[in-house]
Amino acid sequence: MKPDSPLTRRALVRGLAGTGVAVAATVPSLDTSAATASPTSRRAMVRARQRFFGKSNVHPRTGAVRRDRVVLSWFGCTSFAVAMNGTVLLLDAWVPRGQHSGYVPTDPDEVAGLAPEAILLGHGHFDHAADVAPIATGCGAVVVGTAEHCAQAREHAGEEHVRVRRLGSVDSPPGTTYRFRVGNIGATAVKHLHSAASAPDAEDPHAPLVPPPDPSSVVENPPTPSDVLDTASHLPDEEGGCLLYQLRMPGFRLAWNNSAGPLEDEAPEVLEVLRGLPRSDVHVGTIQGFNQPVNGLRDPRMYIEALRASVFVPCHHDDWAVPGVSTNGAHYEKPLRAELQRIPKRRRPQVRFLTDPADYIRPGRLTFHV
Ligand SMILES: [Zn+2]
Ligand SMILES: [Zn+2]
Questions:
Q1: Among candidate residues 300, 269, 242, the one with its CA nearest the CA of residue 124
Q2: Are the CB atoms for 240 and 148 separated by under 8 Å?
Q3: Which of 24, 70, 208, 338 keeps 20 to 30 A from 329, CA to CA?
């Protein structure tokens, strides 16, 4: 673990006490932002939260989300709005568009309207972080990521102020761990690796996984010129290192990774760190990656095995890009279930499979009782 600067006074005291706990920047509490918002923006916030987290889970006047539910709402690729222990945050921040328009039924304005306290970034590529600047400037959320992720968010926001919380840098060694708090949630971030092709694994051989292209999302949802331009302008965005997060509240742990690198070949120490984390209840993880034409879903499976969650939720398998780069997520269901057969039954998680576009912004699909 690596010490860092404080999020709360309690965390500061803990840090000063030499626990080595790394903690994040101050973020406004949900109640404060609700109280200071104009009636119009508060109504928009309540509306957005009711849509993303379910009407029965959100207070109709304050927008507070009930604490005995953990609710995730998928808005494409690896981006999720999360309500946990009353705290609202985002995991990644991109509404997929450009190759199509309107396939994911929301936009950055509505996502900013959720008034998340923080945006946790897994890495900086456009399919994860292209909407960080408009969302962060729209709601004041703290951007959490490596120094490079934070610099990129600020650069894209131009002169506008974006609050950031840096967790190391692209050069931090894989396996470096950071602890911090966001609102009512404790969090651990682990530096890991972006997906990449590696040599064929002779001991754990796989057939190439190349799902067939499916142009239906593009044909049925043709892109607008402004969406094409917006996404094109983010194509050069840098990775800036990869972070995996585990979020904690009493009685529940959620793990999320937006890329899955060839850890076994290049950074086995990260697998050790993941095995050393307390077991997760739910793991939301990418399954698409650059190694799948060589080693199938081996790398995502290694993350799944190491994190030991009861429930696994796949992401990044949906049709977020042009045909040939992505396809409808349904094509991944059989390969994923087959891959998980390689995990002994008693340790194999249940799969809560997400289908695009039906499961976008469908909170009932990812609501967990605590
Ligand atoms: Zn990437
Ligand atoms: Zn990606």
A1: 242
A2: yes
A3: 70
Report d(CA 337, CA 209) in Å as an integer. Answer: 13
What SS3 class is residue 270? helix
| CA atoms of 322 and 217, how far apart (whole Å) | 9
pLDDT band at 45 (very low <50, low <70, confident <90, very high): very high
| Protein residues with C-beta less than 5 angstroms from the ion ligand 2 | 127
* Residue 224 CA to ligand 1 centre (angstroms): 24
Ligand 1 centroid to Cα of residue 255, in Å, is 18
Ion ligand 1 neighbours, Cβ < 5 Å: 125
- CA-to-CA dists, residue 115 to 110, 136, 309, 345, angstroms: 9, 9, 29, 41
Per-residue pLDDT of 11-22, as tens digits, reads: 322 322 222 323
Q: Which two tokens stand for residue 105?
A: 């039924």
**Residue 366 vs residues 32, 114, 178: alpha-carbon distances, Å:** 27, 17, 26
Helix axes 333-340, 298-307, angle to 10 degrees: 50
Task: Among the bound ligands, name the one nearest to the CA of residue 321.
Answer: 2
d(CA 246, CA 264): 20
> In residues, how long is the chain?
370
Q: How much distance in Å is there from the Cα of 8 to the middle of ligand 2? A: 32
Residue-wise over 112-133: b if at least 16 C-beta within 10 A, else e? bbbbbbbbbbbbbbbbbbbbbb
Minimum-distance ligand to the CA of 261? 1
pLDDT digits (tens, 9 = 90+) for 115-167: 999 999 999 999 999 999 999 999 999 999 999 999 999 999 997 789 999 99
The mean per-residue pLDDT over the stretch 89-106 comes to: 98
> Could you tell me whether strands 118-120 and 87-91 are parallel, antiparallel, or unpaired per DSSP bridges?
parallel
What pLDDT digit, counting tens, does each position of 301-353 carry?
Answer: 999 999 999 999 999 999 999 999 999 999 999 999 999 999 999 999 999 99
How is residue 243 written in tokens? Answer: 């972070």
Supply the pTM of this predicted model.
0.90
